[in-house]
Design brief:
about 260 residues, alpha+beta, 8 helices, about 30% helix, about 10% strand, disordered C terminus
């Protein structure tokens, strides 16, 4: 009996080691060093398997069974783009011809866009995404597919302008602008730029939005205060209420994909 218990214990520990070994190895190849720390914390029962964004639901259940814990629940998080300035609404000051890379374009004359803070549109984020969760639309903006996004952060690292953030899927208010210009100077380079009018901060629930350096900043710790009122009087559409996939200005449009 003792020998059977010992063999069962060895098998369970071996299974746990193999599962997390594979996870860590895959994570390392994908450039996700944070997964190693997560795996170690899960073994120590400091985090629930459900909090892993890379594993699928079945894999999380398998890990939970091996560890003898509940898989738990976690709010899905996704990558969000802080720019709605596609080629249809954002002014260009020059055309770029060269390596198809946002980083390369920025190194040559700032990428050619009138807004120095706007998405360059050469898909570094989509190339970096190992889960095919980002596609480019027909106005040269990346669109994140929530169902495919694992919140791994590769797009965050790949964007040379820091235009991606990881947010809970139920965080619906998004300020789709990082431009530090104000008023007509801002809208002169992009029709959907935040012009620093501050109406969203006035209309939102108290403490949800504040103006910093001419930009609306949302306090996502107060996500329960979100409502559509914050978007009602925005003159440019810079602040948007997003359900599911996030699109830029105008009608949602993807090239060769469905969301």
């Amino acid at each position: 009996m003792n020998a059977s218990v010992t063999l069962l214990s060895v098998a369970i520990l071996g299974g746990v080691g193999l599962t997390f070994g594979i996870l860590i190895a895959v994570a390392h190849r994908k450039g996700l060093p944070g997964c190693r720390g997560f795996a170690e914390a899960a073994v120590r029962n400091e985090v629930a398997p459900a909090e892993c964004t890379v594993m699928g639901e079945d894999e999380r259940e398998d890990v939970a069974m091996l560890l003898g814990v509940e898989a738990g629940e976690a709010n899905k998080r996704v990558a969000r783009l802080l720019c709605a300035g596609g080629s249809d609404v954002a002014m260009r000051k020059a055309e770029y011809y060269g390596i198809e890379s946002c980083g390369a374009a920025l190194a040559v004359g700032g990428g050619g866009k009138g807004c120095a803070w706007g998405c360059v549109g050469l898909a570094d984020c989509a190339v970096a995404c190992d889960f095919d969760a980002i596609v480019m639309n027909d106005v040269d903006l990346p669109v994140v597919i929530p169902e495919a996004c694992t919140a791994c952060g590769d797009c965050v690292d790949a964007c040379p302008l820091d235009l991606f953030v990881i947010l809970p899927l139920d965080a619906h208010l998004i300020v789709q602008c990082r431009c530090l210009l104000e008023g007509e100077t801002a809208t002169g380079v992009c029709e959907v730029a935040c012009d620093a009018c501050g109406r969203c901060a006035v209309d939102a629930a108290s403490g949800l939005i504040e103006m910093r350096d001419g930009l609306a900043v949302i306090d996502y710790d107060r996500i329960d205060l979100e409502d559509l009122a914050a978007t009602a009087r925005c003159p440019t559409g810079a602040i948007a209420w997003v359900e599911g996939a996030q699109f830029g200005a105008g009608e949602p449009s993807l090239v060769g994909s469905e969301v």
